[in-house]
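Cross-check.
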Amino acid sequence: MRTIDTSIIISTYNSPDWLEKVLYGYNCQDYKGFEIVIADDGSRNDTLRLIAKMRKEVFYPIVHVWHEDNGFQKSQILNKAIEKCSTSYIIMSDGDCIPRKDFVSHHVDRRQKGYFLSGGYFMLPMNISKLISQENIEEGQCFDVDWLKENGLGSSFKTKKLTAKGLEASLLNAFTPTNASWNGHNSSGWKEDILKVNGFDERMQYGGQDRELGERLFNLGIKSKQIRYHAICIHLDHPRGYKNQESIDKNLAIRKSTRIHKKKWTDHGIVKNPEFDFLTNNKVG
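Predicted model, tokenized:
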């Protein structure tokens, strides 16, 4: 029996076509010791049917964590998924990010106590996102720059994310100006550390809730490693109807409070404390 030592949380909402591509990507991984925990923010039955189909096709176990649709509540469903993870190490990504075959192995090989890992993504346009088939994923074509250019991708330095390997990837990780933050599309850390900061702040909707979790991990004393040129996923295009300025402004205020007060814990996470509001530092009621 295969030993499972890693849990991979994949967030999704009413995007079964994209989720299917992502799950095929995980079925091609060169590291096999993982489970997939799908954090489903209230999808319809077509996602449930897809998961039932994929359970028969893939080698890894799938845990489906779902709650009723109540608008964009990704933080809530991610916290529920964290609790369902059966291993000590968690990789987090999204249901629109297809992992390259060495994605999981790079996270596993580089995990270290006292650290979390920060990855990146390569964004694809909608026409190529739709074009990618199961065969393209299994043969690795969707990560091949020549194949992508043949199908309309323009030239850019960002393609280095797909081509860099070995020493070049390490140097690019070392010198990139991008911060090694907790990114919801590609990050990993120890479950015990995530629980120590109480998971995601459930007051936060779209816009930076992943970064705020990472900021509390930093305040806890956890450091980060940059692996954006090693652990590669391609990001499929999609509309973002849930994006709004009110949510972004609210999240920025919460993040500011986290930084100013060096908070390690949120009382609006996995464990709830309704008597204290950490945004205002005032008792409630």
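The domain at 6-283 is CATH 3.90.550.10 (Spore Coat Polysaccharide Biosynthesis Protein SpsA; Chain A). Residues 278-285 have pLDDT under 50 and may be disordered. Passed to J.P. for a second look.
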